[in-house]
Specification:
about 300 residues, alpha+beta, Glutamine Phosphoribosylpyrophosphate, subunit 1, domain 1, 8-stranded mixed beta sheet, 5-stranded mixed beta sheet, binds glycine
Length: about 300
């Protein structure tokens, strides 16, 4: 059996454009798996396809930080070898997920950040590239003007303290299962719009956004500070290891986090996908948003199969 499940971020709608985007990612991944490719290869390539699609907040099309720069986070985890590679706040590269894979395969480290990550990428031939699109620059200008005027928007509501710095999104992920029963998971993000320069989200933090092990893999999206603080991906995996299927595990882990937050996490976005060694998939989010899709053993793509959690 081979399988792959992907998500396209908790702030993106389930419309034709995004459904096509996640379908292309699944098709790329499942094609590789059906040809005998590894789970790491399939998860990485599915994410690369979404990084190259400017509608997603990852790679090209990443949101800009408070200073108008793109800083990206990415991680890949090989559940078979138990190895991880990640980059945080990396700038001026096209595909952070490919750099993360190089960190996993070519170094004794797990996580490289900032200039060190960019220098590492150049050493391995990743050319200088500006991931900011015109659309994101316009979006940044609009948000900045609202911030300066003290106006609230749903995108800014998360940053209650950001306005004092103003004088001067979300994420994609994939989990794959290859013919040898190996599982890999990865996640990539431009982070949240208007984040402070240097802010690192949950994505490159192992066990926070992403987990892969012998029994299952998980990739999450949403408010990184909440996901990090609650090591949510590891909690989902633990529930699968305890016997739940991925759908039930995501539901239980998210419910527990949201119930622990003030107003049951009202205003907090949380979503994700999971896949276990039997090829069972899960997809849960606490919003109408988050395009997601999977395929098992064929190119037939199943779109937006998951459930919406209301706690
Ligand atoms: N989950 C993406 C972020 O908070 O950066």
């Amino acid at each position: 059996m081979v399988a792959i499940v992907v998500h396209g971020g908790a702030i993106n709608p389930l419309d034709e454009k995004f459904n096509k985007g996640v379908s292309e990612a699944v098709e790329t991944g499942i094609d590789l798996l059906l040809k005998g490719g590894s789970a790491v290869e399939a998860a990485t390539e599915a994410i690369r396809v979404m990084e190259d699609n400017p509608i997603f907040n990852a790679g090209t099309g990443s949101w800009l930080n408070l200073k108008g720069e793109v800083e990206m986070d990415a991680i890949i985890v090989d559940g078979f070898s138990n190895k991880t590679g990640a980059v945080a706040a990396i700038k001026k590269v096209k595909n952070p997920i490919l750099v993360a894979r190089k960190v996993m395969e070519e170094t004794d480290h797990i996580l490289l950040v900032g200039d060190g990550a960019t220098e590492f990428a150049r050493h391995f031939g990743f050319r200088e590239y500006d991931p900011a699109t015109e659309e994101r620059r316009r979006g940044w200008q609009e948000l900045r003007e609202k911030l300066m005027k003290g106006e609230q928007t749903s995108l800014l509501a998360y940053w209650s303290k950001i306005s004092k710095f103003a004088k001067l999104g979300d994420t994609v992920g994939a989990v794959a299962l290859d013919k040898d029963g190996r599982i890999a998971a990865g996640t990539s993000s431009g982070g949240f719009p208007m984040k402070l320069p240097g802010r690192v989200g949950d994505v490159p933090i192992i066990n926070a956004s992403t987990y892969a092990g012998p029994r299952c893999g998980v990739s999450l999206t949403g408010h990184g500070e909440v996901i990090m603080q609650n090591i949510v991906a590891r909690n989902v995996a633990q529930l699968v290891e305890n016997g739940l299927d991925p759908q039930a595990a995501l539901t239980e882990a998210f419910t527990s986090v949201l119930r622990s937050l003030p107003s049951k996490g009202s205003g907090v976005l949380l979503g994700g996908v999971s896949l276990d060694f039997r090829g069972r998939v899960g997809g849960v989010r606490n919003t109408e948003l988050m395009p997601h899709a999977y395929a098992v053993d064929s190119r037939k793509v199943v779109l937006n199969f998951g459930t919406i959690l209301r706690v």
